[in-house]
Amino acid sequence: MQKHFFLETFGCQMNVVDSEQIVDLLRAIDYLPVDRPEAADLILLNTCAIRDKAERKVYGHLGRYKPLKAAKPGLILGVGGCVAQQQGEKLLKDLPYLDLVFGTHNVHRLPELVQAAESRRKRGHAVEFLDRETRLRLFPRRSGGEAVTRFVTVMQGCDNFCSYCVVPLVRGREISRPSGDILDEIRELAAAGVREVTLIGQNVNSYGVGLPGELSFARLLTEVEGIDGIARIRFTTSHPKDLSDELIDCFGSLKKLCNHIHLPVQSGSDRILRLMNRGYSRAQYLDRARRLRQARPDIRLTSDIIVGFPGETEEDFADTLHLVEEVRYADIFSFIYSPRSGTAAATLEDPSTAGERQARFDRLLKVQEEISRDWRERDAGATLEVLVEGESRQGQGQLFGRTTWNRIVNFAGSRELIGQIVPVRVGRVYRNSHLGRLIAD
Ligand code: 5AD
Ligand code: SF4
Q: Residue limits of the MTTase N-terminal domain (predicted)?
């Protein structure tokens, strides 16, 4: 009888790529995907531990699947990703209805764990970190399929140890993938019809560290620019401290590089940036933002900001607000600080109250919302180049694509346009997307 799996993915692009690999591995052992947990013989959660809220969500979902297991005794329930990495075997102890746990370095072991659970009803876990050689060998590599856009992993892990961040603990040490492999993969993707690649890593700017003689990240981008068929290049995430002049210059010289950079600032206060162990000052950040705009005048910046880091004063927070007003981000992702066990900041005292932190968060959102609206409205009435990614959820005859600034545009058009860059005149602008009309060439 055909076996089915239901996979739920939380968190960042790293997990998205890992989940793509999970799908391939499960197909290879005769499981097909379904979109309802009730229809599955295997339910997997690929989890995120970045903040407490993300972690709690995992336990919430697991609790919901528990009764399914009572109804269908053969059902296998597994957890992977960052929560699995951090909790390990403890998850199996705490949750008797769970069958398997696999960490961030152990996606390749999933088939073996599933088969052990199937045949011997044996519960298992695999959460050990791997050595460099093994990790290099196991770097996720994906085929193009039907896709127009693809993430390509250039590095994994993080060695920065920002004081609030759990990533170095759950993703392990930084490791770069040889450029030859990356470029081969992108050539294959291009041959399969992929038009846009996003080079991903926790900190792409430290690409090449530990690989002597390897290309710099800027050189790597230049090589990608030369690959026929690829029309657009993006990358994420870049750490402001390592944003080199050479990389800034790429925005002047590489036509395929999109007009967008996600450059998380986290805070506008020098005192807090030091406590966060970010390795740059407010002035250095602002200088890099200015130079990016010199290299590419219509570039749009986005950012991540943490509100309520332990000891953040009203003055520190005002510095963040002013920085946001000065940079004028197209958008920000803001988060209330969430202590993560094992990180340096987890032990810091914090005199502020939850109410104060929430009030600051709301003030920041309000300031940014006006700036975001201003950027969106600049697009209204303009004819923009849109890379068509697929049929829109809006329904029949509706397509969606993205502008170079990474905004979604919905418009009417025929399926043949998928994969092409077409001119679309933006009519209405909404909070999360634009509605436009295709302009005939
Ligand atoms: N609390 C709140 N936000 C956090 N981030 C990372 N760690 C924490 C934490 N402990 C945010 C940072 C990062 C984004 C992915 O998540 O802003 O850039
Ligand atoms: Fe976390 Fe800092 Fe590494 Fe980003 S650079 S993953 S915020 S430790």
A: 3-119
Element (H, E) at 297: none
CATH numeric code, 132-378: 3.80.30.20
pLDDT of residue 268: 98
Q: CB within 6 Å of ligand 2 — which residues?
A: 158, 160-162, 165, 167-168, 202-203, 239
What pLDDT was estimated at residue 394?
A: 75
- Beta carbons of 411 and 397 less than 8 angstroms apart: no
For the residues 404-415, what does the mean pLDDT come to?
96
- pLDDT bin (cut points 50, 70, 90) of residue 2 is very high
Pocket lining for ligand 1, CB < 6 angstroms: 50-51, 164-165, 264, 266, 304, 306, 335, 337-338, 340
- Compute, in angstroms, the gap from residue 327 CA to the centroid of ligand 2: 21
Residue reference for tokens 């764990």:
113
Q: Which atom of ligand 1 is nearest to the CA of 345?
A: 10
**Confidence (pTM):** 0.95
Across the chain, mean pLDDT equals 95
CA distance 123 to 125: 7
Q: Which sign, positive or negative, has the C-alpha torsion 312, 315, 321, 324?
A: negative
Beta pairing, strands 100-102 & 124-126: parallel
Specify the pLDDT at position 142.
75
Ligand number, closest to the Cα atom of 160:
2
- SS3 state at 330: coil
The token duo for 307 is 């509100």
Domain ranges of the chain: 3-126, 132-378, 380-438
pLDDT-derived band at 312, boundaries 50, 70, 90: very high
CA within 13 Å, CB half, 129: 14
Report d(CA 348, CA 232) in Å as an integer: 43
CATH topology of domain 380-438: OB fold (Dihydrolipoamide Acetyltransferase, E2P) (2.40.50)
Q: Which pLDDT tens digit goes with each residue over 85-139?
A: 999 999 999 999 999 999 999 999 999 999 999 987 789 999 999 998 899 888 8
H or E segment to which residue 318 belongs: helix 314-327
Query: What residue type is assigned to position 166 of the chain?
Result: V
Topology (CATH level 3) of domain 3-126: Rossmann fold (3.40.50)
CA–CA–CA angle 122, 125, 128 (5° rounding): 155
For the chain, give the percent of residues with pLDDT over 70: 100
Residue whose entry in the numeric block shows the structure tokens 């029309």: 231
C-alpha 319/C-alpha 269 separation (Å) is 5
Most informative mutation of 162, 306, 333 for ligand 2 (most atoms within 8 A of CB): 162
